[in-house]
């Protein structure tokens, strides 16, 4: 993928998970990487920028830092995300606001700040979304809304920037082997997927994701790299599912119904679960953003 050679690629949320694996995979093709995270000590890159993307003043500084370092910007990967495990009834205003700030407000204004530079290079934007944007389920209300907004933002930006030959696409990601998703699955009693044929979770996983199993972070990184490269020069305004077939099924309603009836499933996780998740991830080195109210 020589089309990434010496291109300036800005990746947010790059200290762990999908962002870190995307940067590592892209590095094979020798771009100039600018990696953004709240914990830059975890990063190894040409340029690292410490930023809290929930803070508006950090957004412009991220883009200007990349351009100051290399003189241009070719690719923006909006990967940083704030999870929120809570149904509508139990979601606090502070938790809701942080989820929206990181998941949709930050990509919106980072893209706005990057537009002038991307027009000069005829570059691209890649947004990381989720199947939660397209499938309704309880317990992740604000997160799902934020990802649905991100996917429609992808289409709008693609339309607006097409005359400048700037492409904008998204990945709709299914269950993935990130610390966040695996810990969430454990907390609500779903998994991770098990090889035990007598365990109803195995059948639920098969129904929910026809290819079985979960996506690896490298699965995601490969598609991000493709969309960022000139190999995808004819693709814009699309949200590509990387989900092992998850969206083909009546996923949450049908597939996990069997699991939820076994007694293992803990229905509608509240913000108490969010606190448990954040604490567990902190111990394991994960980078799950926490709202100011401690969730």
UniProtKB/TrEMBL annotation:
Where is each Ketoreductase domain found?
Answer: 7-174
Q: Which residues cross the membrane?
A: none
Which molecular function GO terms apply here?
oxidoreductase activity
**In terms of domain of life, where is this protein from?**
Eukaryota
**In this record, what's one Pfam family?**
adh_short_C2
* Oxidoreductase among keywords: yes
Signal peptide residue numbers: none
Gene3D superfamilies given in the database record: NAD(P)-binding Rossmann-like Domain
Keywords annotated in UniProt: Oxidoreductase
| Gene Ontology terms describing biological process | lipid metabolic process
Fetch the InterPro entries from UniProt.
Answer: KR_dom (IPR057326), NAD(P)-bd_dom_sf (IPR036291), Sc_DH/Rdtase_CS (IPR020904), SDR_fam (IPR002347)
Which PANTHER family has this protein been placed in?
A: EG:BACR7A4.14 PROTEIN-RELATED, ZGC:101858
Query: What is the name attached to this protein's record?
Result: Ketoreductase domain-containing protein
Q: Which organism is it from?
A: Batillaria attramentaria
